[in-house]
Every structure is written in structure tokens, then in C-alpha cells.
Specification:
3-stranded antiparallel sheet; 25% strand; 7 strands
Length: 155
């Protein structure tokens, strides 16, 4: 969709540029293939339609932010070397990336059903996640801004 939209914008820009050249050539008195009336109307139409296209692009590019009350949280405190992470308020279709203190990805989980979710870790993943006193959960969802939740590890 973005590629198609980019092609449409580039076509409109080319038409606008061609209309401006035709208009300036006629105004200068040199011979041009386009008449002055048609050159002006094409440039006005192209420029107004490109402005509308740009406004639509900026509206689609902006993403919603998730309210703090609806963000992912832990339902139970995470204890050191625990192999289960209990999450609440998970949104359907979101993806959660668990990163350790050194920002290395440990596990990625996709949420298929909204609500509570228990994430099971292997021994290696739990060991990697426990490097440091905190770990991060980065949550991404289509149409929303990505946010990060920092979780402290209890002993």
C-alpha cells in the first residue's frame, strides 16, 4: 500500500512540475507545446490534488498511543530464575519482545487472545533474562506506537 501511495505522489509531483515548466515557458514568450490556458489549469489541479494526498499520508502515518491504564503489566512479581512470566492486559495481535539488561532479545511472544497470558521460558532463556536487576518488555502492535515496560527482578 505504501509503495502504491508513493508512486501516486511521484506521478502527481511530475505532473505539477511539468505544468509549472509549461506555464513559465509561455509567460517568457518562448515557444512551447502546451498553451498557456491548459498549462495553468493542469498545474493548479495537480498541486491541489498533491496537497490532499500529502494530508492523507500524514493522517495515516500517525499512530495511536496505548493508554497507561491499558498497557501490559505483570500480574505477579517476577522472581529470579523463574521460568514463568505472568502478564495481564495483553492486547490481541500485539507482539511482546523480552530483552535482558544488555538489550539482547531473549524471547518473542505474539498474543492471540486478549487478557492474561503465561509465558514459559526455558532454562537458558531464564538465565539470559536474569542478567542484571531488570529486564524489558517491548510491546508492538500494528497501528499503535511501540512502548517498553521495565520490570525489576525480585530475589
Amino acid at each position: 500500500m505504501k509503495k502504491v501511495f508513493g508512486y501516486v505522489l511521484s506521478l502527481l509531483a511530475a505532473l505539477t512540475f511539468a505544468g509549472v515548466i509549461a506555464t513559465t515557458a509561455n509567460a517568457a514568450g518562448s515557444s512551447a507545446t502546451a498553451t498557456s490556458g491548459s498549462g495553468v489549469s493542469s498545474s493548479v489541479v495537480a498541486s491541489s490534488s498533491s496537497k490532499k494526498a500529502v494530508k492523507k499520508a500524514t493522517k495515516k502515518a500517525t499512530k495511536k498511543t496505548v493508554k497507561k491504564s491499558k498497557r501490559v503489566k505483570l500480574s505477579k512479581k517476577y522472581k529470579k530464575n523463574a521460568r514463568k512470566v505472568y502478564i495481564k492486559k495483553a492486547m490481541k495481535g500485539s507482539k511482546i519482545n523480552f530483552k535482558n539488561n544488555k538489550n539482547k532479545s531473549v524471547k518473542k511472544v505474539s498474543i492471540k487472545k486478549a487478557g492474561k497470558k503465561t509465558v514459559k521460558l526455558t532454562k537458558k532463556q531464564a538465565k539470559k533474562l536474569n542478567k542484571g536487576k531488570k529486564f524489558k518488555m517491548t510491546v508492538t502492535k500494528k497501528g499503535y506506537k511501540t512502548y517498553t515496560v521495565t520490570v525489576s527482578i525480585k530475589k
